[in-house]
Amino acid sequence: MDWGMQNRLSQLIKPDGHCMFLPIDHGYFQGPTTNLEKPAETIKPIIEYSDALFVTRGVLRSCVKPEGSKPIILRVSGGTSVVGKDLANEILTTSITEALRLNVTAVGLSIFVGSDYEKETLSNLANLVNVCEDYGVPVMAVTAVGKELEKRGSRYLGLCCRIAAELGAKVVKTYWCDDGFDKVVAGCPVPVVMAGGPKVGSDKEVFDFVYDGMQKGAIGINLGRNIWQNPHPVAMAKALYAIVHEKATADDANDIFIETKNQ
Predict the structure, then answer these.
(1) N- or C-end of the chain: fewer Cβ atoms within 10 A?
(2) Using CA atoms, how far apart are residues 51 and 39, in angstroms rounded to an integer?
(3) 173 in helix, strand or coil?
């Protein structure tokens, strides 16, 4: 692996081998998502707990200060919305020239395996890897499921992750599942980070699945809504950071959450 690629990956994945990414890219298909109406205000109190931001170029330029910025994973796919016919019908929206101009650490895009646009989104990934390898920029593939949440089983996610790695992704973002997440990770030859998806029913539920996923081989998380849509985002971010980087258990994280929110 070339020095530039290794250097960028080392900015994303910390010396302990783990990472905590903070996605704020939801507006590219959801518009002004709840609690993300003003991204600069959303991230200000919780940015210290993130190792990198996952963001679009528009929000990066308008809402993220370039001075002392966290590493940036640039969202480069899109072209669809929640009111359109199919979220899977994405294109590449941002060029490698633009990514380099913005001095990003990595780029990310979604793939929709099993959808009507499977070939198109996998082609997006392959083409992006082709050009990014020339410039030493890592690609993170996101195994998206659109509105079909029932697809989040281990066989399906294992298939998606392996295909993403086979096509050259350096990191894969996927969902945790309770029916064999260890097999999903074991079948993927590149690092796996966990997505959060819609906000869950309880805070402890988040700590439980993150801890379980870390024990089963994930190197970290890429959680947004479960942090910044929580009534206590700082407490949630601090608790999750403890699981990812400080070897805290789910119970430990819950104690940290309660203590922090009550301060």
Answers:
(1) C
(2) 17
(3) strand
Domain extent, residue 38, equals 3-225
173 is catalytic: yes
SS3 of residue 133 by DSSP: helix
Task: Give residue 146's pLDDT.
Answer: 63
Catalytic option among 44, 173, 216, 238: 173
For the chain, the domain total comes to 1
Residue at 230 is within a domain: no
The Cα 28–Cα 167 span in angstroms is 24
> DSSP string of 192-235?
EEEE--S--S-HHHHHHHHHHHHHTT--EEE-SHHHHTSSSHHH
Task: Give a yes or no: residue 237 inside a domain.
Answer: no
Tell me whether residue 182 is in a domain: yes
H helical segments located in 87-246: 96-101, 118-135, 154-166, 181-186, 203-215, 225-228, 233-246
The pLDDT confidence band at residue 201, using thresholds 50, 70 and 90, is confident
Q: What is the mean pLDDT of the chain?
A: 95
Of the candidates 21, 28, 48, 75, the one whose C-alpha atom is nearest the C-alpha of residue 191 is: 21
The pLDDT of residue 69 is above 70: yes
**At 193, which CATH number?**
3.20.20.70
